[in-house]
Structure of AB hydrolase-1 domain-containing protein:
Amino acid sequence: MSQIDPTSVNKIAEKRPVILFDNAGVGRSGGQVPTSYSGWADYCAELITQLGFGQVDVLAFSMGGCAAQMLALNNPTLVRRLILIGSLPSIGPGVILPPPEPFQEIRKAHDRESQEAAMLNFCFHSSEGSQAAGRATFRRMLEARDDWSDLIDIDGTQRQIQAFAKFMNPELASEGSYKRFNELRIPILIIRGFHDFVFERQTCQAMAKQMCNAAVSVYEFPGAGHAPHWQYPEEFAELVDCFLCATDTTKIPELPVHWVRWINGTDLISKI
């Protein structure tokens, strides 16, 4: 939880209860990192059940969003609304695999300086404005906690890699999310940065179209990389609140930033 921006989380928490947690083997949570995203989802479902919640809204970023997809698919009555940020679907037609180099830089980061450099390269665009937003994000994360938790160890990293490899293995496609997206019948908000090299626009469009029975909205933030919610924390929090409160999630109000929006993967609405 050390790598969570307090600005957006606190703003969201002004209007509703927010529960943050590290999955098994991450941060200060015990146990081993599961080697499949379904395994990650099982821990999420167990936590939600043990806390006594019958239904929740789920927000997840990057790999966490892969697990959130499986959580919603494997527990169809547990998730009321789903928000995915920069989250790849499992392998399928139209899905573009990200380059490996930035992932390798993150795995090699061993101190605060290298962690910041890796985060700036992986999560933010190379423009001056995006990099400045990234440095500000990292400062907020550090200042929010006196007990910053270390990054995941080598064994945990390898197990995360195994989970991602399975998700992207065509031979295991039936165990992933892409082929099952038609099962989802809930409101879904997908968020990406315009320059996100992990979650490419083509992948995003293929994913949204595959969710043919869900009420899907896609927002794309300009000038942002893999972590648009960190670059635009206040606007992101406003979007989340609108989505969670809306009676009709396909009619979310305009944001005070430029954006591109798809509805159900077909209609394109631009505000640029």
Observations:
- Residues 128-144 form the longest helix (17 residues).
- Strands lie at 56-61, 79-85, 187-193, 215-221, 259-263, 267-271.
- The radius of gyration is 17 Å.
